[in-house]
Amino acid sequence: MSLLEVKNVKKIYTTRMGKNQVEALKNVSFSVEKGEYVAIMGESGSGKTTLLNILAALDKATGGQVILDGKDLSTIKESDIATFRRDNLGFVFQDFNLLDTFSIEDNIYLPLVLANRSHGEMVGRLTPIAEQLGISELLKKYPYEVSGGQKQRVAVARALISNPKIILADEPTGALDSKATDELLKMFSKINQSGQTILMVTHSVKAASHANRILFIKDGEVYHQIFRGESTNEQLYQKVSETLTMLQAGDK
Amino acid sequence: MKKGLYRKLAWMGIKSNRQMYIPYFVMGICVIAIYYILDALAHNSLVGAISMTLAVVLMLGMNVIVFFSLTYLLYTNSFLMKRRLREFGLYNVLGMDKRNLTKILLWENGISAGICIAGGAFVGAILEKISEVCLCRFVHEDINYKIQFYPYAFIRTIVIYAILYSIILLRSIFVVRKNNAIELLKNDNMGEKPVKANWFFAILGAVGLCWAYYIALKSNASMTAIKNFFFAVVLVIISTNLLFIAGSVALCKLLNKWKSYYYKPRHFVSVSSMTYRMKRNGMGLSVICILATMVMVMITGSGCLFFGEEESVARQHPQDSHIILRFDDVNKIGDDNIAQIRKIYEDVQNRYDAKVTEVQEGRYLETSGLLDNGRLVLDDENSRNLFASTDVIRKIHVVYVLDERDYNALSGENAQLDSDEVLLYTNRDRYAENHIDIKGLKDFRVKEVLKKFPYIYSKEADIMFSSLCLVVKNYDEFAPLCFSDESIKTKMLVEAQWYYGWNDGITDLSKELDMMSDMVAESVDLYRWTDGTVSRNAANINLDRQDFYTMYGGLFFLGILLSVVFIIATVLIIYYKQITEGFEDQKRFEIMQKVGMTKKDIKQSINSQMLTVFFFPPFLAVVHLSFAMPMMFEMLKIFGVYNKPLLIGIAIACVTVFAIGYIIVYKVTSNTYYKIVSGEHI
């Protein structure tokens, strides 16, 4: 069984007066296996953020099912959703979403503190992750004292620390310069190689070309997908570019 | 640019930030209404007729209100400005220059001032009559229900508050002009750097507070107590500020280090955000604490005066009426002269058909000096200097002298003294010497130190100074010691006095007063001094009671009025704190919800924060009040109120009412805060 199964997911937004309906997702189906590194691509307005919000249980689908590790998200009670998210999902956002009131260390601990873990356990978990991400030196600093690339690595550490089943990354390179982007993507690959499942939403070809599989969404549907196979990042980059051009041209 | 644009922008700014503006208007309307009420009352013909003291008390209140309004409106306006700056930044980027922004500010402050002044005057005019009725009840005056309007008070209110709002406008303009567009845009989300704990100031605050408490505990009943009281008040305000600003940061840092406390879901977020904005937070909290203390001390003090005034009046009037005559010659308190005066008194009383009962009379010599190591000396510098240092004050003694015959008659003892012997009594410090030297003229042997003394009249009411009571062989022998020195005599530092007190059962006060003035007038030749002056003191309990009610009733009324203002101010500070922090925290809680914070966690975290932050100021205020109690008790003695249970009772009632109100405010505002941060707020 797949780790994540998305079956015929539909999302319709209704304007406040109920007059206009916008169909953000028409019919999306795909699945993600354990240990996969999947990128979802699409233009602005294609529905990829809506999809991610539904996967993150931040939003509810109008129709269809999302099953994570055998559990249907729609069956989780409203009051348990936050706990579910905390225990099963790790998030990396475009704008980092670090809390300026916490030191770097405390920012990373946040999910564990909310899960009421002991301080000893937190330290035990943080040490290898900080080592791996190269942020051991930053732990006592505050977010305003570090660079954007460093902030994003802190965010990754925060996502990893609760041992999530899947990491959901929303445009993780969106606010980074090219050097920081390269470093972050390298890090994602490394994390993936150690067995972590990653699902990344992006419109950066470069970011997508690091994934093992790329899904293209257009007008609320999965339009196409590319498998890495034996390609290198550069070859995959080529393929993705071509697919995007094709997509923009509008013909299959 | 289009006509009316600035006005529209200003109005829209107010409307879209109504959550912030409405409380600001409410506060403005309140202070202006109260100012108008005080002004109208102070210049009211009725109040003028009651007493000038009352008018003065009310004018004092006016000054307090104006000063308070200015600082407080500036303070709350700074919250508003902080929120508006971003918007101004946007206008600036869109092409408005500082002059255009100034115009918006002008409109905005104009609208605010207009609403507040008009509203305040309106509310004030309505409530003025109610206040007048309350005041009349407090000071026991007849109530007049005619509605009146006071144009001068009205004009003064408008002028004073127009000036106040202009000052606020100028400050806003200054803030906007000082910042450039980018700074204005960033202002709202620019985080403060985490502050460092300043242990020096934290310790300074603690030491200052201990010092103030020490002053309060060791104070005694004298004018020095009043002087010390103001010093202690200033010390408490400064220390409270330091403690909250530096001490709270230090406390947060400590909590931060305490791993097993800090890394708990309910404390993690609250402790870190408290640390983060403790400096600002500390300011707000110390203001809350000081206002709370002020309200409680004010109500307790003035309430105690008001409810204790009957006791105070009774203490100073053992009989309904009394006359005290002072003579320049000791022979005039001899039996013959006194008998003649008494005869005249009785004649007058008969003429008025007075049913005189409970006559009490007595004579004594009175002087004063510094008592030091068995020696009473005169010291022109310090004798009866109300503002001398505490040590000197303790040495100043008012001396009452009775002769053996009068003492035996009053006390029922049978004392036999030689001419160089005295019986001695002191009311405060124990007398340790076996002799007493009266002004270097004669040294008496102390035959016995008495345990109690039969005071004539209620001399113990004179608690400002210690009293030294002596019983001597006879007045004639003692008096020359004092009267012999011409300089002392002319300065009237020694007096032969005669007290005559009685109850007459006359219910008509003016008739009673007429009788009394006839008594003193018709006997005047018998106590006139050789230089032609007369010195007497005629008092009536009903007349004095009226004075007491006017004074203390007025003070109590003012205390309540000011407390209302301070309480509203406290509530609004809490409200503003919650709202602004709510908006600041909104984004943080959003992030935390994304990484798995539940609604329950949010509630718990808010509770933890509230319990730590919100209940500390009133708690410290109660501690302040408890330490102020001994001092207040001593100060109340000056006004003749000795009732400790009354003081404690009023204080407890005050604290209880305050606590209940505070809890309600806490519930309401923490709900608002929750709604904002959890995103349920629109």
Describe the 3D structure:
The complex is a heterodimer of chains A (252) and B (682). Chain A has 252 residues and is α/β, with parallel strands linked by helices. Chain A is built from eight helices and ten strands. In chain A, the strands form two sheets. Chain A has a six-stranded mixed sheet, with helices on both faces. Chain A has a four-stranded antiparallel sheet with strand order 2-1-4-5, covered by helices on one side. Helix content of chain B is 67%, strand content 11%. Chain B contains 22 helices and ten strands. In chain B, helix 2 packs across helix 5 (98-138), helix 4 (52-93) packs parallel to helix 19 and helix 20 (599-614) runs antiparallel to helix 22. The two termini of chain B are 33 Å apart. The relative contact order of chain B is 0.12. Chain A binds chain B through residues 56, 58, 79, 82-83, 85-87, 91, 93, 97-102, 106, 109-111, 113-116, 118-119, 122, 142, 144, 158, 162, and chain B through 191, 193-194, 259-260, 263-265, 268-269, 272-273, 275-276, 588, 591-601.
Termini Cα gap of chain A: 31 Å
Q: What structural class should be given to the helix and strand makeup of chain A?
A: alpha/beta
How much strand content do the residues of chain B show? 5-15%
Q: Largest sheet of chain B at a glance?
A: 7 strands, mixed, barrel
Low-confidence spans of chain B: 487-492
**How many E-type strands of chain B?**
10
N-C termini distance of chain B: 33 Å
- Strand % of chain A is 25-35%
**Which word captures the global form of chain A?**
globular
Which stretches of chain A of 5+ consecutive residues score pLDDT under 50? none
